[in-house]
Design brief:
By secondary structure, this protein is mainly α. It has one domain. Helix content is 54%, strand content 0%. The longest helix is centred in the last third of the chain and has 17 residues. It is globular. It starts with 11 loop residues before the first helix and ends in a 5-residue tail after the last helix.
Length: 117
């Protein structure tokens, strides 16, 4: 067995800064695709599996697909849906808040996206 160095990548700062940048864009009514794509990359490295394998990510991407042009503006409703999906993914993985283990968050996403009761 070789002596392999364990590389530690401190991603907490970029996660916090990325979230703040996303919230700043939301506050300034600047729903550019670029903001979503940047945060999805930052979030992905903070999860045990790639973000693209997450069911919530897949669902929001199916309901609110991102335009291919990163500089395109998206409807605020879509921008909010992506932010909500990111928040729920972070909660699911204990990145923020605590993991509920229940279906409350899934129900909230369904309701927000028009699929709830």
């Amino acid at each position: 067995m070789t002596d392999a160095a364990i590389v530690y990548l401190n991603t907490v700062v970029s996660l916090n800064e990325g979230w703040e940048a996303l919230m700043q864009a939301y506050r300034e009514f600047d729903p550019m695709v670029h903001h979503i794509r940047c945060f999805e990359r930052i979030l992905s490295v903070n999860l045990p599996l790639m973000l693209e394998t997450n069911d919530r990510y897949v669902e929001v991407n199916e309901r609110f697909p991102l335009p291919s042009d990163d500089m395109a503006k998206m409807p605020m409703e879509s921008f909010r849906a992506w932010i909500s999906a990111f928040e729920m993914v972070m909660r699911d993985h204990g990145v923020i808040g605590r993991k509920s283990g229940g279906t409350e968050d899934k129900d909230a996403l369904d309701e927000f996206m028009g699929g709830g009761a």
